[in-house]
Amino acid sequence: KKKQTNERHFCWSNMNSRKIFSGLSKQAFFMPSTFRFSSSPFLMETHELKELMDAGKKNLVVMNCTKLPDHIKGTKGIALHEKARIPGSVFFDLAKSVNSKCRFRMILADEGEFNEFMKDYPINDNSQIVLYDNFGGTGSSRGYWTLTTYGVKNVKILNGGFMKWKKDKLPIEKGPMEKKEVTINQPKFRLNPMQLATVSDVIKVVLGVSAAQLVDVRPEEEYEEHCKDGSWAHIPATKNVYFKDFIAPNKTWQHVEEIKEALHKGDTWEHRPIITSCLTGMSASIGFVALKKIGMQDVSVYDGSWTEYSELRWDDFRFQQALEEVPEFAEGVKKLEEEEGWDIKNVTLREIMLKLTADI
Predict the structure, then answer these.
(1) How many whole angstroms separate alpha carbon 316 and alpha carbon 14?
(2) What single DSSP character describes residue 96?
(3) Euclidean distance between CA atoms 151 and 149, whole angstroms
């Protein structure tokens, strides 16, 4: 029988007030192999996916979310997908799921752009979606965050990804993909703002008017780099928890207790909201999935991450949004202009925030 245990979890709602919510933990249980499913609501094991494929599971959609870092020139994720992939899987192009109006490369697409982007994929409310990538989980995590942030249901990540699929000697498909017309009726995908942190949310934390925690998941040596002016090359008030601490050496996800241990070592606690960040908003998604895995509800990704925070300027619409949404920030900017003679249009958000937080 499946064991069910009621647990109590604590989270912060609206940043300042605490509330209690109930959750139901899912324990592993044994059934005939054809019907055995993962104990995690976020993960699917390789043998489970193979069984679903063999059974001709209706509405199963397997997607490869591989995205190579921008510094690797000449090779794209789709090229790796055509070279070798899980049979029947389609390529989910993360590079096209971004906001075309923003100059920072991994800002999530707005509703109009996202719904247009999704027309290329056979997904509706009845789909069972399984995501994987060719490397250590960054692409599939970003894919999971992207889809669930727009309300897509029944999404899981293949535990261990394509590397484990190959290690388990499961079937592989090669060659160019046949372009198939998408004919299913799709719902209108709507943004869930609870999973998306904007620069306004981050500014609130840095100014001390939000109870959320900022977690930078980059490696320690990158987190501790300095800018040319000698300041830290990370957002003030962030804690550093390396995303690879959430992933086991075999590229599968760590267990709940190991994820919690990594968080606590980074002086980060699951009873307060957490905003994850990195350099561009990709590996921050690994932090998001890991925190969801341990039962956190109030967790979001800052998709602009350090790149936006360090380079954002007055003429960007997201800077203007922050002035409207964070009164403390608008007041500080006005003071710098009127009392200290700053030319706000010629400095970055990073420089402004360094000045505003000098005495905090």
Answers:
(1) 27
(2) G
(3) 5
